[in-house]
Amino acid sequence: MVTIQLVHLAHARSGDKGDTANVGVIAYEADDYPLLRHALTAERVKAHFGDLVKGDVERFELPNLQALNFLLHGALGGGGTVSLMTDAQGKVFSTALLRMEIEVPAEVAERAEGRGRVPAGFDPDRPIPIPGAP
Amino acid sequence: MNEHDDAPRLLRIGSGQGFWGDDLEAPVRQVEGGPLDYLMMDYLAEVTMSIMQKQRSRNPEAGYARDFIPLMERIFPRIVEGGVRVVTNAGGVNPLGCGEALVAAGRAAGVAGRARVGVVTGDDLKDRLPELVRSGHELRNMETGEPIETILDRVESANAYIGAGPIVRALQGGADVIVTGRSTDTALTYAPMMHEFGWAEDDWDRLAHGVVAGHINECGAQASGGNALVDWWTIPAMEAVGFPIIEARADGTFVVTKHPGTGGRISRPVVSEQLLYEMGDPSEYITPDVVADFTSLALEEVGPDRVRVTGVKGRPATDFLKVSVAYEDGYKAVGTLVYAWPDAAAKARASARILRERLERLGLRFDEVRVELVGWDSTHGHLAGPPPADLPEVELRVAVRGRDRAAVERFTRELAPLVLTGSPSVTGFAGGRPRVQEIMAYWPALIRKEAVQPHLDVQVLEV
After folding, report:
1. Which of B233, B236, B332 sits opposite A84 (nearest CB)?
2. Which of A26, A31, B249, B451 could bond A67 through an S-S bridge, CB–CB 3.0 to 4.6 Å?
3. What is the share, in percent, of chain A residues with pLDDT greater than 90?
4. Is the complex ipTM more than 0.90?
């Protein structure tokens, strides 16, 4: 087994409900969903965030989307307009979770290498045309 | 299998706005870029109603999404000619005022006598709150369990999230543009499906499909490539992003797509991201009209920028509506300064310490003082690790919050002095003194449907 960052195995989106942030984590490959299900327990996710999450972490499974949904209670400094946080609406808790390190078989790590990060040579200033457009 | 095999009729419901402040050209692209039957536009977020209420208290004619009116003036001829109907919660806390402004806009746009505006009212509970509490509606905070009496004298706005019923009635009454207050975001999409397909109110599985369609539409381009993390650097032409369009069928199943020739991407992973946005328990997505199970749905890519959604299960609606109450809860202010290399993070942190000590010496009391270093820890906190030794620059962001307006006001005068009295290599104060902001806290509660539903009213105005 080797340790890799979750960012190479999954993408994610987060949002808010009051003082609770949610993070939906989606496996890039359906084959990796069982692995994520095993590695990303509510306890481990809570430990990963540490004092960024004051309350409990709840986990829900969506095998149909090869996804897990986490509720991070007490993560938004009161939420809404009360919060003093830059990320008062929890928009980037998603990528904060993708920093988590998990243990995977070596072949999974090899396959996932580089996934989830901008490839070398990417030029942000170059427009991306619509496929098939003249 | 050909996806159109059993589809004699498609209903196309496009998303035009995902929030108040969204891309103003998107609705124009939706009505001009290809066939469309309905355009839904979501303007309301949790804090929006209180902002609108504040505007209305200063001007009785205000209190709705103002920029909806010039937008409609622009697209009115097109939607009348094309038979596109518009459903929106742009009415905010003043749907009737919005409807009347819309009538005037329609006349200015040359569609007098050719369109009807439907106005839905009755979701606004602000004036009814004392009576509701007296008659036994506790409106306890869903998160903390506290009774609403503790904040009753500080309520700025109170609205019930209402479902599709009144929108369907307005459509039956011949309205072409329907303006509501706090309708749920999802109802703006599934109300047209109920109306056009004649779904029964207890057709739970079909309604649940409508809810999923609504959840996809309600954030605009977030379902068509915007803010999508998956392979974001490959998503084409976001400068001309096509907002999502639901192609619904009578059995509830639908395809998410967008107009040809637009930018963005509609794929299984992109749609999955949007499905998970602001998700609680995915097996219990509660709306006024049905409880949808998002773990039952299936996504399938059926063509380029086409994702089909099937299999959604629904359960009977609950006896309650959610209520969103906004109340005054003190003041806050946020200020920033920029520190440059070398040792940018150390300089910023030292200045923050100096500032905190000055606030303390002044005897100012706050409920919270928060220090972030933008460029290092403002979004991921301790997960960002220690600041890189050679960080080129960092923005110090200090925020305070408290009940005492004078203390918050004084804080806004303590930031600028740091330019000459704190750590060196500091700049970026051109924006001036921070602004004191009133905090509108959010109080989610539940109310029995029968306390709201008899008050819901639909008016149809002739343009």
Report:
1. B332
2. A26
3. 93
4. yes
Task: Give A49 to chain B, closest Cα distance, Å.
Answer: 7
Strand order in the sheet with A10-17: A10-17, A20-27, A67-72, A57-62
In chain B, pLDDT over 70 holds for what percent of residues?
Answer: 98
Contacts of A118 in chain B (CB under 8 A): 233
Chain B contact set for A15 (CB, 8 A)? 277-279
Q: For residues A54 and A49, give the distance between their C-alpha atoms in angstroms, rounded to a whole number.
A: 9
Residue of A nearest to B375 (CA): A86
Of A22, A64, A130, the CB nearest to B261: A130
Q: Does A120 touch chain B (CB under 8 A)?
A: no
Domain B329-442 is of which CATH architecture?
Answer: 2-Layer Sandwich (3.30)
CATH architecture of A2-80+88-104: 2-Layer Sandwich (3.30)
Determine the Cα–Cα distance for residues B238 and B249; give it in Å rounded to an integer: 29
List CB contacts (< 8 A) between A22 and chain B: 276, 278-280
Tokens found for residue B281: 């328990």
pLDDT digits (tens, 9 = 90+) for B212-240: 999 999 999 999 999 999 999 999 999 99
Place of tokens 């993390």: B229
- Whether residue A15 lies within 8 A of chain B, CB to CB, comes out as yes
Helix (H, G, I), strand (E, B) or coil at A17: strand
**Contact between chains at A69 and B282 (C-beta distance less than 8 A):** yes
In DSSP terms, B314 is beta-bridged to: B292
Amino acid letter, A85 = M
Tokens found for residue B332 = 């806050």
Rounded Cα gap, residues B111 and B76, in angstroms: 7
Which residue from A minimizes the CA distance to B311? A64
Q: Where are the domains of chain A?
A: 2-80+88-104
Q: Which residue positions in chain A have pLDDT lower than 50?
A: none
Asked if the C-beta of A69 comes within 8 angstroms of chain B's C-beta atoms, the answer is: yes
Rounded Cα–Cα distance for residues B71 and B405 (Å): 38
Segments making up each domain of chain B, as ranges: 11-324+444-462, 329-442
